[in-house]
Design goal:
By secondary structure, the protein is mostly helical. The chain contains five helices and no strands. The protein has a single domain, classed as Ferritin, core subunit, four-helix bundle (Ferritin), CATH 1.20.1260. Helix 1 runs antiparallel to helix 2, helix 1 runs antiparallel to helix 3 and helix 4 runs antiparallel to helix 5. The chain binds magnesium ion.
Length: 168
Amino acid sequence: MISQKMDRELSKQLNKEFHSAYLYLGMSAWCAEAGFSGSAGWFMAQYQEEQEHGMKVYNYLLDQGGKVELLKIKKVKTEYKSLLACFEASLEHEMMMTTSFNELCDFAMKEKDHASYGFFQWFVEEQIEEEATVSDIISKLKMVGDKNGVFMIDNRLTGRTVTDGAQD
Ligand code: MG
């Protein structure tokens, strides 16, 4: 069992995961419209991964006898000024999600809720990977600078599948 306060925090996190999914769907749409098909596929995989994260929180809430609350999902951007700006927005978002999980860990410790603390650890690890992957793409985009280079990197992002670290 979890406390009512933890229940509420988990419902908020569930909403943040689905908001992330929505945000990545918007990025995928913009990339597709701009002709960055590799990145469009990459963000689509990200979209699916975030839904899995949301479902992980959802299932945990139910397993712990909590009350699932499905809060309103905020509107997201579907316009970016460049591929670099799009990935930078993605990194900024992931950093915010990392903060969110760190705060949840703090809260679980305060509540002496060891089960939830353990549950959040999977996400803490996942966030390290998320930030590292996006930072690497940003570095490469900054390195190339010109159009040909950007399209080359976009091409390299083709073929990502949703099983990349999402289901372990
Ligand atoms: Mg996530």
